[in-house]
């Protein structure tokens, strides 16, 4: 004799097996890093517009909360409210799972217009003082050379501080995304004195892919998989271009 299957029971079992239902809300941390992310930017920035579109395509809502970078990473690591943080460059990690790429950014050096620097490899920069932002991932080679003491690095807490230090001749160059430099010079009054005094170095370090770093647990893996599927449903390049 066939047994009757109760629809309500099926729904209950599905919910038990799949803890993430449609229309769930996800919380991530981010930082003020215009034009990619910023609380007061249109759509909160290019990277956040991409992320929200991808989650929306999958029926979920993304809420982004903004903090200084080091705190954003710490909260994503230690606070159960947050499933991760972004935008981030890829690095080897046991704590985080990285999404598929959600856009790119041109990473290079800002330099003083009166002191342009020619280089072919990072070995050519061992006599320079290079500004970095505390806890930012740069490139694997550069970060290794800084850690080993082969490159003299000066750390600050924001890109704008580095731009001002380069403009004032206190450091030779600083790592920065060229889109970030362009935005700061056009929109941030704090760096007005640097206008006409700094420029991007002719040679880029790399075109860096951008990611969401999800917690390395079952919940983070589910959200990563949902996000990756959502990315296939949207036009990443068009959304990025619209917000640059």
3D structure, described in words:
This protein is an alpha/beta fold. The protein folds into two domains: 111 residues, Periplasmic binding protein-like II (D-Maltodextrin-Binding Protein, domain 2), CATH 3.40.190.10; 103 residues, D-Maltodextrin-Binding Protein, domain 2 (3-Layer(aba) Sandwich), CATH 3.40.190.10. Helix content is 33%, strand content 23%. It is built from eight helices and eleven strands. The strands form two sheets. Strands 5, 6, 7, 8, 9 and 10 form a six-stranded mixed β-sheet that branches. It has a five-stranded mixed β-sheet with strand order 2-1-3-11-4, sandwiched between helices. The N and C termini lie far apart (64 Å). The N terminus is likely disordered.
């Amino acid at each position: 004799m066939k047994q009757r299957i109760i629809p309500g029971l099926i729904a209950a079992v599905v919910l038990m097996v799949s803890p993430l239902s449609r229309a769930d809300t996800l919380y991530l941390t981010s930082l003020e890093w215009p034009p990619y992310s910023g609380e007061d930017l249109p759509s909160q920035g290019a990277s956040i517009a991409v992320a929200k579109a991808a989650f929306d395509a999958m029926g979920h809502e993304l809420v982004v909360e903004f903090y200084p970078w080091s705190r954003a990473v710490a909260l994503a690591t230690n606070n159960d409210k947050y499933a991760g943080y972004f935008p981030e460059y890829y690095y080897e990690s046991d704590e985080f799972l990285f999404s598929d790429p959600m856009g790119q950014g041109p990473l290079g050096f800002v330099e003083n217009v009166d002191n342009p620097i020619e280089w072919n490899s990072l070995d050519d920069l061992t006599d320079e003082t290079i500004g970095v932002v505390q806890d930012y991932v740069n490139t694997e080679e550069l970060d290794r050379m800084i850690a080993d003491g082969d490159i003299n690095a000066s750390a600050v807490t924001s890109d704008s501080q580095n731009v001002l230090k380069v403009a004032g001749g206190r450091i030779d160059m600083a790592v920065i995304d060229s889109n970030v430099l362009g935005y700061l010079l056009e929109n941030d009054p704090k760096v007005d004195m640097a206008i006409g005094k700094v420029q991007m170095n002719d040679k880029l370090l790399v075109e860096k892919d951008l990611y969401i770093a999800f917690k390395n647990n079952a919940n983070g893996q589910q959200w990563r998989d949902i996000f990756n599927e959502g990315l296939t449903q949207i036009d990443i390049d068009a959304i990025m271009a619209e917000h640059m």
